[in-house]
Amino acid sequence: MSEKNFPLSSEKLRAFAEKHGTPFHIYDGIAIEDRAKSMLDAFSWSAGFINYFAVKALPNINILRLLYRAGFGADCSSLAELYLAKEAGIPSEKIMFSSNDTSDDEFREAIRMGVILNLDDESYIDDVLRLNGELPETISFRYNPGRDRTGNAIIGNPVEAKYGVTHAQLANCYKRAKELGVKRFFLHTMVASNELNEDYIVETARMLFSLVDEIYQETGIRISQLDLGGGIGIPYRPEDNGISFYSLSEKIRKLYEEMIDKKGLGPVRISFECGRAITGPFGYLVSKVQHVEHKYRDYIGLDACMADLMRPGMYGAYHHITVSGKEHAEANHVYDVTGSLCENNDKFAIQRALPEIERGDLLIIHDTGAHGHSMGFNYNGRLRHAEYMILEDGIYKIRRDESYEDYIRTMLKEPEKA
Ligand SMILES: *Cc1c(COP(=O)(O)O)cnc(C)c1O
To answer: What EC number(s) has UniProt assigned to this enzyme (predicted)?
Structure first.
């Protein structure tokens, strides 16, 4: 079970919404920092343990800076994400570049910045050589286990996934890297998304630990860092249970002793690239009810839409919804909760039991702290909204609303001869 709370009282939220307008995302910075520190604490047995926060989950400089100060690095897959991480003050050695289908420009810039390259394909060795003349001292390869693992719904079956080097290619990648002068070898994988079964993550550790052995046997190369990727799930539904970093860490530690320590393969540093598990539960989309409509079904029309949160419309993801001030009222009405796009899947909830809702009510859509604001788009000319962050000494604005001027900035008002 996971309790669905909101950090502000309904009076405080009402006053804040009246002053600053709706909709907006608000993040509990205090809880995010605690969460980050608890992950580092749980894995402190692994010297140098780090989580490269997946920037795509919540790409706001202020959040990245807060996480960096707590001890995290950043995982990026585009130039813009690399620049955000830099802007947040994160040093290059704490930035992982887990890109795929990478352009020459991205490789050039990532090499110039000195971040860790996590190569998605054998041929990327040649790309880096062509662009840079040599490989950097540290290199990581992304592994795709293919038939050896089953993926899950969001990430898909590994055999069908475009990511990573196959089992048959892996040893050769390291061999070539070594011949080309690489000194430190990392191994990465990402086979789960929103996974709530702790043992699945433990199995990923087992798979990587056995690869460390295999690669050593086959090539004499010692892997010095493993990256278990992201994918640790969060309890979107109140009846779900989240994963405990402590219990997960303990299971991984036991395996490490058995499969790495006892075989003299260590030390191998453990790392992750979790995004969702760090910020997901601590973000909320607050939106005001503009309409209560009674058609063939009853509809609640919000001032937020898919531009603010895509997950429900895009893949039917469940996001818990509460009505501010009616947390304890009986959920005896059934509504579709919608946005304003001319697109019928612009719904935050379908046939959801909620208390009776009136125009002007503030709805809190929970667990929007990861893959929420960041996925938003401008379809229908809908603009993305502000982000706020709660800290000990008050609430801070960390992104303003988009404006019409932002929306047309890239458009030429008159055609320009090309
Ligand atoms: C998306 C992604 C992550 C983060 O996933 P979460 O589910 O947010 O933990 C980490 N690494 C890579 C390579 C990704 O694509």
So the answer is: 4.1.1.20
Catalytic residue set: 342
Nearest CA owner, ligand 1 atom 13? 98
Q: What is the CB < 6 Å shell around ligand 1?
A: 54, 56-57, 75, 98, 190, 193-194, 229-232, 273-277, 370
Phi-psi region of 39 (alpha: psi -120 to 50; beta: other; left: phi over 0): alpha
Cα of 74 from ligand 1 centre, angstroms: 11
The answer to whether the peptide bond before residue 7 is cis (omega within 30 degrees of 0) is no
* Burial (CB count within 10 angstroms: exposed 0-12, middle 13-18, buried 19+), residue 31: middle
Scored b (16 or more CB within 10 A) or e, 246-284 reads: eebbebbbebbeebbeeeebbebbbbbbbbbbbbbbbbb
pTM above 0.90, yes or no: yes
Q: Residue with structure tokens 């860790």?
A: 116
pLDDT in tens, 218-268: 999 999 999 999 999 999 999 999 999 999 999 999 999 999 999 999 999
Burial of 346 per CB tally in 10 Å (0-12, 13-18, 19+):
buried
pLDDT at position 155 is 60
8 Å CB contact between 83 and 62: no
| Residue 416: both structure tokens together | 């320009």
Which of ligand 1's atoms lies nearest the C-alpha of 370?
8
Token pair recorded at residue 22: 């709706």
Compute CA distances 124 → 100, 130, 312, whole Å.
Answer: 9, 10, 35
Amino acid at site 317:
A
**Site to substitute for ligand 1 among 58, 190, 371, most atoms within 8 A of C-beta:** 190
Ligand 1: residue of 77, 119, 273, 315 to mutate (most ligand atoms within 8 A of CB) is 273
Name the stretches of the chain with pLDDT < 70. Answer: 150-156
Give the per-residue pLDDT at 149: 74
Outline where DSSP puts E strands in 253-408.
269-272, 283-294, 298-302, 321-323, 333-338, 347-354, 362-366, 386-391, 394-399
The residue among 327, 326, 348 whose CA lies nearest residue 339 is: 348
**What is the structure's pLDDT at 2?**
86
Please, which residues have CB within 8 angstroms of residue 163's CB and are 6 or more apart in sequence?
100, 120, 142, 144, 190
